[in-house]
Amino acid sequence: MKKNVLLICLICFSFASFAQNGPRERIKALKVAYITEQLNLTSKEAQQFWPIYNEHEKTVGKLKATGRRLIKQVKEAHNGANGLSDAQAGDFLDQHIDAEEQKSAARKKLITDLKQILPNKKILRLIKAEHDFNKRILDKIRERRRHKN
Predict the structure, then answer these.
(1) Cβ–Cβ under 8 Å, residues 36 and 43
(2) What pLDDT score was predicted for residue 75?
(3) Helical H runs in the chain?
(4) CA 92, CA 72: separation in Å to the nearest integer?
(5) DSSP label at 118?
(6) What is the Cα–Cα distance from 126 to 123, expressed in whole angstroms?
(7) What average pLDDT does this structure show over 78-86?
(8) How far is 98 from 92, CA to CA, in rounded Å?
(9) CB count, 10 Å around CB of 83?
(10) Residue 101 has pLDDT above 70, yes or no
(11) What is the C-alpha separation between 31 and 24, in angstroms, rounded?
(12) Among residues 53, 61, 26, 66, which one has the least CA distance to residue 127?
């Protein structure tokens, strides 16, 4: 009896914590499931693939956050981009280019690292799966926005 109560409590807390993670965590979970399904990795490939991919996602996530911060700073300037001096605008552009170059370098590193453990065809399927997943998410967001209006 005590085990059943403990099990029920554990399940309830698990659902509660999953619900608190919010939309970003749910999207990440859906992305992992979609990529897993599309790549059809062997257990050995999966053990090697996910740590590399997760590290890449973490790096890119930080770079995207930096980009969002830059955009927010431009918006918070007195009159948006118009409120910046040309030198300030140049600084923002340099930071933007740097972040984009870092994202590109991270993507190149991901592909280079994956070539060590996966066949090239699976890497191409990963690229397609990521593109398809992002397109599906954007389509769902657009659909929800249309229904709200």
Answers:
(1) no
(2) 83
(3) 2-20, 22-39, 43-76, 86-115, 120-148
(4) 11
(5) S
(6) 5
(7) 75
(8) 10
(9) 13
(10) yes
(11) 10
(12) 53
Contacts 24+ apart (CB under 8 A), 62-71: 63/99, 63/102, 63/103, 63/106, 64/103, 66/95, 66/99, 67/96, 67/99, 70/95, 70/96, 70/99
Residue 49 to residue 41: CA distance in whole angstroms: 9
The C-alpha atoms of residue 85 and residue 114 are separated, in whole angstroms, by 44
Q: Is the pLDDT of residue 3 over 70?
A: no
Would you tell me the crossing angle of helices 86-115 and 120-148 to the nearest 10 degrees? 130
Specify which residues 28 forms β-bridges with: none
Half-sphere exposure of residue 143: CA atoms within 13 angstroms, side-chain side:
6
Q: What is the DSSP string of 10-37?
A: HHHHHHHHHHHTHHHHHHHHHHHHHHHH
CB 112 within 8 A of CB 104: no
Residue 46: Cβ within 10 Å count: 14
User: Could you tell me if 75 and 10 are in contact, meaning their C-beta atoms sit under 8 angstroms apart?
Assistant: no
* In the block, residue with structure tokens 């923002």: 92
Residue 17 has pLDDT above 70, yes or no: no
Place of tokens 């911060």: 69
Look up tokens 């918006």; give the residue: 75
